[in-house]
């Protein structure tokens, strides 16, 4: 059957390819895995025992490490996941031994309006239903581990309120004096449940908890998920879990999961989740799916463990950084690579003619609204002007010492003159450029991109961090704002100033990484400013502290950790074919 | 290594046996499964594709169907799960082709004080950590499916409050006018989170939900779990999910998951969960684990699908009914067998000398308190007197037309004279009796029980229900109360009377099954009345209606759908060995 993405829906293409996809046993054979290393979850999904694999292959040199990032996108997105998958397919088509690592989608967007981010057209990962609906249960494990901490916290508060010191001592419990006004964590659920954003709990009698305000977050915003993404192994994971600050006591001291004696049990729920999951592209290359931290407050990347495994199993390992290069790549560079000790050989920057036009002055396209006509016509001048944004991101990648490759993610409205303009401008700036038609043609359409990446990976890398961990926090933030965002400086709210004092005064907190929060729709903090905004300062409103994950989060702008379900969400159209058991209506 | 339960903890025995347990591939070979029918989840846990198996073996006669129930227990429990597992091991030791089906434990009790119900001594199921910590994720799937209904409900209430009819019509939504005072469902989480029993949600602005009272239940109390237990196949499951009543509108009409357009998506989260899980006993017999409905309000039995599969795969299929025979067996008999169309060949009634003494007048033993000395001494008189309770349950089993086998679950303090007394009394009443030492000796200790069961299974069965579905609800309740509990009659609260009128007037509700709620610690509704209480009436306080699960629940007593976490819960002692990945401290 001819697969034509211009005529078929994504899930129809996925369903067609799923009819003859490889079993995980075939994939494991091709990767040379032992029987013990492959943990099948049904026939088409597996977990890989990271520990056995890394032990067996510890002397094998790593493959080439490729990160895919993007220019500042329009609100429609510019196909970063699709390009990552297309690149994997392209490298596969060239006969390279290739693997990838991507994030697991949250049930929130999958059931709401965004969909499951499995790529699109002929660049997708399958099985789509397993990928979209929880895979092997890692997010559920995060949810259980996280909520167990809240159970321990609220039960402890109730028991301390009901029992005197003598009774507590008999139960071998010391009084923690938790401040109900300073509970840091919300509960989690992996849907967009705005009704649980602001709640009051513990109503009823004295055996029904401690009455106080509380909140729910989407599960992928849990610090447990952030920890899953950045941990190097189970030991590291266990230690980080124990450092999570759940609340503060009435004297301002942090109460951790270890204080609540729940860190070990939280970890018990996560033992299987630490192993990466494996599925495949439409063309049968293996793809690891592992961790899906909420990009708004966490690292927004798939796990370090998946990268360790991928780099041992293949000659080319492709991963992706959430959002644009100023957000996603900056965190990949200064946080993920610092935690992992890995160095990328090549960084792909995905651009579209659409986004370049937008940066050059065309009206901003909006989801659910008709595409402005400017995007259906040739406008070389806007494209050229918009390249300023792309050039800025190329410079950012170069500052890391990595080799940039620009991928023009082709669309049928692109004209030759527009593409030629981008190619010329980028090549003048010293970046490789490739046009890729993976959406329309799969791996066959991504050969130019694959070749450019293979070439770039042969070049020497002079990888260096933007800042050292002994640099004071304000200096780090200023350096990121100026060098990566192009700001003139940074201002701080009194709240942020106070937190910076606390952090700088604490030898443990001072050494944590820096994980910036800012819109990805502009280099600045204002999503309406396109191109390369000039003459602005970054306003830092607050600093969040994630001791377990190992970073502090300077927040420029507002963030919600619980998105809302819209009035026409995806779940209205999702169902099950009761004869075949196949899920219909996913996208 | 010699395994001595008098010297080793249960989890130590489990860990020792796990070192050389069979892989799921070996188990599948022994069962004659095809490669497609086995869905491994790692090396030691699998799901079985029920549909493929039932299609392939549709012409094969069913094996013998054995239900394990118990006399009225003490608050310490009398080892019903342990006996079920011991019986499977004993039949295996006799060379019979045997399989079992048990419930999956909830994370609530596992993390709290009850533990995970994996049996004990040399009658356990393994791997213990997988069994105790969510297995393949079915309970998480229930949680997600259930909570998605609440997301749909609360989002809809918010949108109806914020938008006028014209805007709703544009989004193809009709106004449902949900009554915030008549939301039937709570949210679910699979822990004992008493702080979430009574909550207020939807605080904040108009985009933050609809402000109202709400509640959380333990996940296994979800109607989705009840439906998983009673569904015959995916089609049946899908239809039942769509009939769940989430709330009522302002005119008193039910609002179902179909009305909220969320039933299909709920089912999508459950597609994998409908396949039973397979693990094994310490001695390598396969055991299916499937569904774990909260016995307090639901059927309290493992799934019908698991029984269908087990009966095709083996010559002897052992399952278990939650609580004592008046509760568990009565539901097995009149609900589960009615829904499934299956007929048991033999019913095992587990008794202990301890419980018989208690029914005969010895002080009630309590968890966490020293065992009263009466239980450490010979007291044949109390044992004989206590046999009245056992005889009552034997009669109940006989009323169903099934063949009873009494299993005396032996303990080292039992004396020969005590055991002889029970044997004599039961045999006089026409029941087979076997003494079993499975806890101490595994299958070798359960040979007498296995032989008695094999013999009983050869006898003819004259299975008949206690009531027909065309019998009015009050008559059914009265019949159960009199015939099974030994009550003189039934009284109804005004609330219950009102519900009965509604049910009797509705042709759909009238045909639903009857699922009684009452303490299991007495034949009566008063847990302190031991033996066979006389001269009492059953007070029915309320009737719950579960349209999806397909039964109404007359409630005699109080029930909480959200247990509380105690001050010394199990999670304090649970941790992970970061070198081996093994979970420690489970019980």
UniProtKB/TrEMBL annotation, chains A, B:
GO terms for biological process: tetrahydrofolate interconversion. It catalyses: (6S)-5,6,7,8-tetrahydrofolate + formate + ATP = (6R)-10-formyltetrahydrofolate + ADP + phosphate. PROSITE patterns: FTHFS_1, FTHFS_2. The keyword Ligase applies. Keywords: ATP-binding, Ligase, Nucleotide-binding, One-carbon metabolism. It holds the Pfam family FTHFS. Pathway: One-carbon metabolism; tetrahydrofolate interconversion. It comes from the Bacteria. One of its GO terms (molecular function) is ATP binding. SUPFAM superfamilies: P-loop containing nucleoside triphosphate hydrolases. InterPro entries: Formate_THF_ligase (IPR000559), Formate_THF_ligase_CS (IPR020628), P-loop_NTPase (IPR027417). ATP binds at residues 74-81. Its EC number is 6.3.4.3. Belongs to the formate--tetrahydrofolate ligase family. This is Formate--tetrahydrofolate ligase.
């Amino acid at each position: 059957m001819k697969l034509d993405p211009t005529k078929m829906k994504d899930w129809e293409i996925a369903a067609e390819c799923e009819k003859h996809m490889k079993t995980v046993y075939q994939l494991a054979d091709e990767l040379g895995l032992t029987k013990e290393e492959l943990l099948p979850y049904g026939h088409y999904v597996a977990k890989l025992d990271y520990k056995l694999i890394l032990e067996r292959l510890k002397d094998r040199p790593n493959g080439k490490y490729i990160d895919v990032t993007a220019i500042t996108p329009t609100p429609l997105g510019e196909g970063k996941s699709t390009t990552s998958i297309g690149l994997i397919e392209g490298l596969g088509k060239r006969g390279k031994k290739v693997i990838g690592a991507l994030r697991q989608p949250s049930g929130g967007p999958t059931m709401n309006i965004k969909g499951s981010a499995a790529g699109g057209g002929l660049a997708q990962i399958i099985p789509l239903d397993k990928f979209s609906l929880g895979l092997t249960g890692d997010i559920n494990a995060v949810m259980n581990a996280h909520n167990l901490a809240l159970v321990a916290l609220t039960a402890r508060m109730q028991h301390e309120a009901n029992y005197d010191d003598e009774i507590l001592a008999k139960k071998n419990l010391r009084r923690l004096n938790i401040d109900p006004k300073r509970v840091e964590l919300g509960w989690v659920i992996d849907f967009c449940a705005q009704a649980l954003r602001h709640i009051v709990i513990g109503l009823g009698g004295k055996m029904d908890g401690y009455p106080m305000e509380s909140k729910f977050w989407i599960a992928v915003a849990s610090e447990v998920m952030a920890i899953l993404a950045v941990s190097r192994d189970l030991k590291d994971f266990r230690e980080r879990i124990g450092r999570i600050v759940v609340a503060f006591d009435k004297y301002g001291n942090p109460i951790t999961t270890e204080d609540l004696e729940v860190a070990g049990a939280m970890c018990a729920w996560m033992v299987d989740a630490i192993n990466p999951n494996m599925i495949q592209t439409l063309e049968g290359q293996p793809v690891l799916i592992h961790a899906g931290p909420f990009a708004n407050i966490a690292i927004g990347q798939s796990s370090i463990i998946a990268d360790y495994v991928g780099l041992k199993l293949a000659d080319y390992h492709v991963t992706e950084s959430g959002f644009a290069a100023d957000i996603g790549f900056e965190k990949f560079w200064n946080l993920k690579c610092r935690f992992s000790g890995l160095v990328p050989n090549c960084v792909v920057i995905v651009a579209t003619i659409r986004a370049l036009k937008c940066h050059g002055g065309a009206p901003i396209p909006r989801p659910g609204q008709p595409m402005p006509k400017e995007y259906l016509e040739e406008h070389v001048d806007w494209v050229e002007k918009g390249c300023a944004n792309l050039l800025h991101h190329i410079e950012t990648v170069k500052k890391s010492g990595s080799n940039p490759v620009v991928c023009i993610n082709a669309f049928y409205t692109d004209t030759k003159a527009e593409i030629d303009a981008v190619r010329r401008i980028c090549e003048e700036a010293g970046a490789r450029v490739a046009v890729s038609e993976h959406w329309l043609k799969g791996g066959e359409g991504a050969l130019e991109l694959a070749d450019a990446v293979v070439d770039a990976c042969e070049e020497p890398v002079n990888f260096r961090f933007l800042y050292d961990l002994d640099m004071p926090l304000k200096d780090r933030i200023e350096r990121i704002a100026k060098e990566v965002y192009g700001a003139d400086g940074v201002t701080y709210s009194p709240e942020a100033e106070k937190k910076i004092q606390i952090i700088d005064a604490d030898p443990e907190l001072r050494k944590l990484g820096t994980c910036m929060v800012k819109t990805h729709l502009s280099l600045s903090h204002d999503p309406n400013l396109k191109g390369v905004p000039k003459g602005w300062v970054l306003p830092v409103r607050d600093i969040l502290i994630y001791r377990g994950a190992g970073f502090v989060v300077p927040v420029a702008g507002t963030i919600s950790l619980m998105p809302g379900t819209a009035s026409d969400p995806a779940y209205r159209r999702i169902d099950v074919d009761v004869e075949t058991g196949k899920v219909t209506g996913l996208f």
